[in-house]
Write a structure and sequence with these properties.
7 strands; binds zinc ion; TIM Barrel; 14% strand; 44% helix
Amino acid sequence: MVSRTTDDYQRMAQAGCVAITEPAFWAGFDRSSAQGFYDYFRQLTDTEPKRAATYGINHHCWLCINPKEAEDVGFAHEVISIIPDFLENDNVLGIGEIGLNKNSKNELLILEEQLALAERTNQLVLVHTPHLEDKLKGTNLIMDAIDNTSLDPNRVLIDHVEEHTVRAVLERGFWAGMTLYPDSKCTPQRAADIIEMHGTERLWINSAGDWGPSDPLAVPKCRLELASRGHSDSLINTISYDNPLYFLSQSGKFSVE
Ligand SMILES: [Zn+2]
C-alpha cells in the first residue's frame, strides 16, 4: 500500500476488509542504493501498519528484493544482507515477492539465494511470476528452483497465476494466487472462470494495489462476480477468506482480529 492513498484504506475497510498483506515489490522506480531498501523495509514494518490500523485493518508484509531490481547482483546482495534484521518484526509473514521478471540468469541466481534465506530462517514464500516475458516458462523455472530446496510447497504461494499456468502450479503441490486487476492481466471475471475450471483447493484471490492501474477492491468485486453467477457463499468465502487465512496463518503471525 506504499503507493496507495488513505482513501483506499477507507474504501477497503468499508468493504469489510479486515487484514492485508503487502509484498515488497518494485515501486515504479529503481532504488538508487541499498539504503533505499532499508527505509522501504522500515516503511513496510512500521509506518504502513500504523496507517492501516487507523482504519481497523491489520497490515502484514513480505520482505525481499524484487526480481525487477535484482539484475545487479552486487546490489541485490547488499539488499539481501539487510533483510534478516527485519524478519523478526510482528507483521512480517515471510520472503516475497521473489521470482522472475525477464527470466534472466541473474534474476534466477538472486531468486535461489532468497529461497536459501527462506529455508535458513523457516519463512513462508510469496512468488512473483512474470507478467511480460514467458509466464509459463518463468513459472516452471521458479518451481524447479524451489524443488531444489527443502522448502515445503504447501508453504509457498505462486502468485499471478493465469489460465495457462494454474494447473501446473496446483499439480506440483503449491498454493496458487490470482492477482486481480481492473482491466488487464487477471480480471475478476477471468478469475471466476478459472475457479469454475479448477475448483478452490489451494487457490485464492488477491487484489493488486500497486503504482499502476489497480484496484484494492478487486477481491470484493470478484466475490460479487461469483455471487452473480450463482456460486454459494461457502465457495466465495473459501476462495477469498478461508484459503488465504489457512495459508497465511502458517507464518504464526497473521491476524484478522
Ligand atoms: Zn508481482
